Amino acid sequence: METSSDAIEYTVHDYSSYSTHFYPENILVDDPSNSKSRWTTQQSEAVHWILLRLNKLSVLKSITFGKVSSHPCNMKEFKVYVGMTPENMTEVLHSSLKNDPIRETFSIRHHNSTGHCFPTRFVKIEPLTVFSPSYNTSIWHISLTGIINEVSVEEVKEDYDRFRETRVMQHILKHLRQRRLLTPFNSILTQSGVRLEHPLITELYESVVLTGNWDKAETVLHDMSAAGLFDQCLKSSNPRAVWREIHDTDANGDIPSVRGGHAMCIDCQRRYIYLFGGWDGQTSLADFWRYDIKEQRWVVLSANTSLESNGPGPRSCHKMVYDSKTNSIYVFGRLDDQDRPTSRAQTRNPESAGSPGFNRSSGAADETPTLSSRPMPSSEFYRYRCEDNTWEHLDIDVNGPRTIFDHQMVMDSEAQILYVFGGRAAEKDYDYSGLHSFNVRMKKWSLLQYVYLSCRTKFFIQFSLMSRATDSTIPSRFGHSMILEPTTRQLYIFAGERDEKFLSDMYIYDIATNTATEVFSDFTSSGGPQPCFTQRAVIDPTLQEIYIFGGLIHDRATLSESSNWLYRYPSRPGKWQKIQPLKGLHKNPTPSSSSSPQITANPPSRFAHQVVYDLPSKTVYLHGGTMMDSDSAKLREGNDGQTEEAPMKRLSDFWEMSLWRLSSKELIRRSAYLIRQQRFKEMCETQAPVQSLIYLQNQVSEVVNHDDPGETQLFRSLLTHLLMNSSPISTVPSAIETESPRNNYAGDAKPQTDSSLLNISTGNSSDQLGHPGLLQSGLDSAHISSEPLPDLSSQNRTDTKIQTSEDPYERKLHPTKDPMSQECFVQRTKTFEAILEFVDDDAKQPAGSLLELVDVDADLL
């Protein structure tokens, strides 16, 4: 299928309203010089929208909004819907625009959750908010791009139609099986050839629901794990952070002193961590350290690099990267004790990244720099050769960045290219910096992206006279994060500060095409962290995960309470999750649990710290930084009525963090707990109470996490089934009531007769099915907690259309056994579908119900 994008032509099909002279058709023309070239809604509380009809059936991949200038009428927040008809449309984008003249392009979701691409004929844009609430909403221009080749689009349509047909049939099959209509279920399954689920899931269904073969059901769980049917659940589960403070020293018992705004890098092959410089609250530092991970020892490489030949001087807010191909370290940038602003816009703010009281405000509007007013300063670019412990002072040509601070730098060792983005100049104009690259082999700098400078409503372009930034320009910033994805050769740039505002956007810069795409305009609204400054980030390209630590939020004075985040990026736009600490270990761990993580205290929230990631061991190392002292984590009012800085405390602590992840053994344990709950409930109706109680104390107890209050509460509540005179599970409809007990559904338990086992409060878990002693495991365990199993909705109640008699297919499976009651069938089905929560989507029946597709009017789907 063709994947290239072309312009998509369209017409305005319908709209909610318009104001005089501001017709909907105006969005077809991109005319920035005409102030009337826009669609403007009427001012009302009604929902506003505009519906576009594509000239040809297409696959919509992006939408671009043209703008003229900042304007109170400009649309801010909006939604985009697509569909084959105006009556049936799907939301594919929810985002917001900036109030500036820079056009913005947004990627449109054109694959469904199963990965199938879908075509569209209609596009609906729904404005939600405007920059000035008292004004009407205006859209100046809309352009669309995507796949328009008729052959390719027809292939997409045919594939999507096949998917829809299959999915409808899967829902029908699910509906029939839930209602015990097994004969028509099997007939349709055979004739249609539709695959409802993985064969192991079918085997699990028959073992749990139809035959009650509990031992076989648990064996199937292990087969499912071996077949990888739990992989999606394991990958999507939220890992838990296991922190350990490192107290190692050098040969003299020393460690790097307290500091913030320092730099670190790691040599993963030799297992070395390098640390250089920083600000200790009084002065900039120039000491250079190395930590040996294998030997667990610090080494002072230089007490003062400024005394070394060609060595860098004291500094903070610089950056340092390691080049694995040449075994070298590159250091760039600086903020030293003399680098202080004198701008008239000074305010009293916390220090920038641990530097000496630096004000982060940009210069006044009339101090806009020009190329002629910028003499090239002395280079602050160094290379350290690890083999011979020597420094080299490197030059920066006219295409390189100025001396900057609070920038970000990454190294592409395979290509031997260094990338530097953002930061602010350490000179009196304190200008922002753009995106640059340094070719190590050619010793040559290149300017990859210009940067526009916003001073209230004016826009200027660095290194370009009167040119205009494009929609692929990444707004420059400082105190941000930048990550190199080595497989796709893309840069992930996010957060930081610009124009005295903390950011929560994310851009992906494609190195090969020199283009940038905005992934999030506000990742906070998408479940990510708050806008933050001087947070740190590292990447695991094998897991396709980015880990974010710490940073300032809000008014430059508050540390995030939940400051550690995980960002998964296999698919756009990616997903955010908080990294919570792992809490609680089993009180009496067994020998098999010796590999369980040992949990210590967690590091306090901070900013201006440094982190590196050891990929082979998948371990994060964190050092130092600045934290708000005591409980003074907010700006406070001084005696003179001025705002004072909150007290700062610089740190010298050193931590390692690994992520405890959910294992397949844990999912097997949880599934076994569900199965044994159901087995026990049925035993209570068919066997002697003592036998049932012994089964509860042995077989059920061994798969319970007794450190989890929810699981423990549910485990103890199971005892009530022994005390009840009757249970819903034993209520057999009179139409099929028999004389024989249903003891064949409970299976044969192997009870022990030790009377000490009758104390229900003293059961201990073992690790036979995986270690259950970790209190919080990263996957919501609601379906095995004190809450009931997921309901199959009202259709499973006695008064609905579930077949109340045994289906002929059941009789074929067990011709000599008594029929199962309707209530037993419902309870077993609940158990089966609760286990399906752990199974990959493509291996199980679809989510949802056919009943959800029926409209209130009963004749609309």
TrEMBL record:
InterPro entries for the chain: Beta-prop_ATRN-MKLN-like, CTLH_complex_component, FA58C, Galactose-bd-like_sf, Kelch-typ_b-propeller, Muskelin_N
Region Disordered, residue ranges: 335-376, 582-603, 733-817
Bias type Basic and acidic residues, positions: 808-817
Entry's Gene Ontology cellular component terms: cytoplasm
Keywords: Kelch repeat, Repeat
PANTHER family given in the database record: MUSKELIN (PTHR15526)
Keyword Repeat: yes
Recorded superkingdom: Eukaryota
Extent of Polar residues compositional bias: 343-362, 752-768, 792-806
Limits of the F5/8 type C domain: 1-147
A Pfam family: Muskelin_N
Keyword Repeat: yes
Protein name, as recorded: Muskelin N-terminus-domain-containing protein
